[in-house]
From TrEMBL:
Name listed for the protein in its UniProt record: Tyrosine recombinase XerD
GO cellular component terms, semicolon-separated: cytoplasm
Species annotation: Psychracetigena formicireducens
Chief place of localization: cytoplasm
Gene3D superfamilies: 1.10.150.130, Intergrase catalytic core
Gene, per the UniProt record: xerD_3
Cell compartments where the protein resides: Cytoplasm
Amino acid sequence: MENGNKVLKEFLENLKYRGFSPHTLRAYRTDLSDFILFIQSQKVQLFELNHQVILKWLQVMENLNKRTIARKISSLKSFFRYGKSQNYKLVDPIPWLSSPKLPLKLPLFLSIQEAKELFLNSPIEPIEIRDFLILTFMYGSGLRVNEVRNLLLEDVDIDEGRIRVMGKGKKERITFFPVPLIPILKKYIVEVRPDFCPQAPYLFLNQKGKAFSTRYLHMLVENKSTKFLGKKINPHALRHSFATHLLEAGVDIRYVQELLGHKSLTTTQIYTHVSKKKLLEVYRRILKD
């Protein structure tokens, strides 16, 4: 199985090079390592796979939930596509295999009133200013947690209110931040950030002058939302809220797609379901009243 592990290592390195998050890399590594262990138990080499082995693998997974099965199938398909692109003699045994149909999972998002409450208190202390800006970039610019973490000082054009973002797959895009944020951002860059480490390239720095861990950023959002809203949310909920509120305000979905950095419009369209759900709630409330 040495060759199989070699291909797996190369595949994961390729995903890392393309900018996939540590969380996604862990999921791929777990799914594919489990698969390789399974075929080892069947005394079959990766380069000798056949439909019978795949059917046994599916039987082993039948008690898992649909979302987990879909993820594992997707991981395996991506792995075989990579092997084919690198001219490995891998015979894809699952081109016929489709993932189980999943129920539509609407993203968690804040109401406009909740978003206002989260950003109601003006920051005063240096760390409060930095943390306020981090949350505002997630909501006001729709940035992913890794995109906020990896923002460089040179990526921000304060006077124009623009940000250059390196998104998934190292895809670059331009997005914007709210104009009222400009004086706070200037204060942070001129007065606050130099106390952490003026030579560091990242925009947001911890007390050691380094980029934050994604774990810390998750904890920051959870703590602030619990404090100001009485409920715990994650960073992605702020990004979801950004997209949902834009669509509810009538912004064209293709503009929202561009701002979010979605490769496919289909990914952005989930927010139209959220907006329709909100519309239905308003409609029913009006009829009830």
